[in-house]
Structure formats: structure tokens, C-alpha cells
Design a protein that fits this description.
The chain has 9 helices and 11 strands. It is α+β, with helices and mostly antiparallel strands. Strands 6, 7, 8 and 9 form a 4-stranded antiparallel β-sheet that branches. It has a 3-stranded antiparallel β-sheet with strand order 3-2-5, with no helix packed on it. The protein has a two-stranded antiparallel ribbon with strand order 1-4.
Amino acid sequence: MSKEIEINIPDVIRKGVVIWVLVAIAVLAGVVTSIYTVEAESEGVVLRFGKFEKTVKAGLHMKIPFGIDEVYVLPVERQLKQEYGFATTGGTNSSQFSSRASRDREKNMVTGDLNAAEVEWIVQYRINDPEKYLFKVLDPEGTLRNISESVMRTVVGDRTVDEVITVGRQDIEEEAMKLLKELVQRYELGIGIDQIQLKNVNPPFPVQASFNEVNQAEQEMARMINEAQGEYNKAVPVAEGEKEQKIEAAQGYALKRVNEAEGDVARFNAVLKEYEKAPEITKARLYLEAMTEVLPRMGKKIIIDEDASQVLPFLQLDSGIGGGSK
């Protein structure tokens, strides 16, 4: 004869209290995990069963709990930056700078004229497409670091060391910006490039002293050229003014001589006309007019007659008149 085994189930369990407690815990956990907050300057990307569902703006939001919905918060309105060849302390972005060994490698470059230069720069960017940023590329910020270094080496390698260190900085920034934007768009990183800025650009340490001397000599040359140009700018207007003054004086003198010559010609023609009418009278008049001008300028006057046996003095009737001498 078999013996029956009796199992005593507590009244609490038989009445379903534990089940209700578990249900309450599950509901509370669902409520807590279904509420999330997106910070200011950020945007939330909602995934449902691992698939992109939607994006939400900053604020308090609800999602399906228990891992059905996942939310990634991205700072889409904040300007981020990456530093190359150096590192600023206190950076919060994990991809803002690389390790010490990587920084030394990043900044050492070769220019187009086969000289070495140490180039430090920053890239400022924003996340402008959260879906592409999360799903198109496995590591978008790491990819950005790689292509930014590649672009900078390409641009620096097309220029001389003087252009890289001195006069060509702005051109390098602009060309690198253009190339980096094209690559970021081609690779669909979901990132927008705001600015590329060169920081410290120097020759390698062993040749810095020599390069500084050359740079100082070039600056001195530029200063002397500017001073000479200033003197030139002051002297040329003065010379131009003197030239114009002399040209105007010469033109005035030429006009005066032409007018005088034309007056002489007109006077001569008038005399010639009168001479043709009465030659003897005109000839006598001209002779007398000439003597009137010549005789007052003479000093002692002596008249010699062919038949005279001695020289007779001529009475100076015009003494003291017309400037004649006594």
C-alpha cells in the first residue's frame, strides 16, 4: 500500500500575493526604464530591436522598456574638435586627441621641397546626421582623424617649407578644409566640418635657430623694401609736380615766343606794304627810327668829314637825358 506525500503550500502563495508583487516590480521597472531625458544641445536616436526608428529633440521622452527601444544621445548642436600633434588638458571628447606617440607622429611632415616641418592643427566639426553617424561607419571619429591627417599631409606635401611656416598658412587651411569636406561627404560620416585651423608650425628643433635667423633676415629685407617704397612714394609725386611745372612754363614760354614772332611778322608785313607804296620815304623813316634808338646809347660822338682837316667834337646836347655819358 503506497503512502501519499502531502505538500503544504503557504496560504500567501496560494492567494497570489507573490505574483502580484512580481507584477508590481515589473511594472515599476518598465515605467522607470521607459522614461529618458535628452540633454540640451543634443538629439536622441531611438532604435527599436536594433533598427533605426526616429530621432527626438532635447527634453523628457518615453520609450518602450525592457530593451525593446534603445536611445543614443548625440551632441548634434555642440561644436566638437579634434587636435593633431598636441593635446589640451581637460578635454571631454575621447577622440579629441591621441596618445603621445601618435601626436609626435602626426605633426612630423615632409614638405614639397623635401624639408621637414612640425605641423599642429585642429579640426572643428559637428554631428549633422545622427543616423549616418551611428550606422554608416563603425568608428566615424576615428575615421575623421585618419582622413584629416591624410589631407593635411597631402596639402603640406604640395608646398615649400617657407610657405608652410610663414606665408601659406591661410591657403593650407582653405585647401585642407575643401578636401576634408569632400571626403567626409563621400564616406557618409554624418559629420559637418566647420573649420580647420593651423596652430604651431615650426621647423624641427635641431634647425629652428638657423630658420629663425633666415626668417629675421627676410623680415629685415621686407622692412627695408617697405621703407624704400615709402621714400619712392614721397619722391615721385614731388618729381611729377616739378615736371608738370616745368612743362607748363616751357609751354607758356613757347606760346609767348610764337605770339611775339607772329607780331613781328605782322609788323614787318605792314612795313613792307608801306615800303612798296613809298620806298624812299619808308627807308628814311626806318633809318631815323633806328638812329633814334641807337644814338642815345652811344657815349662820345665824333663826326668826321672827308674834307675836314681836324676832328671836331660833337656837342653833347642830350647829356643827362636818355642815360648817355658826358
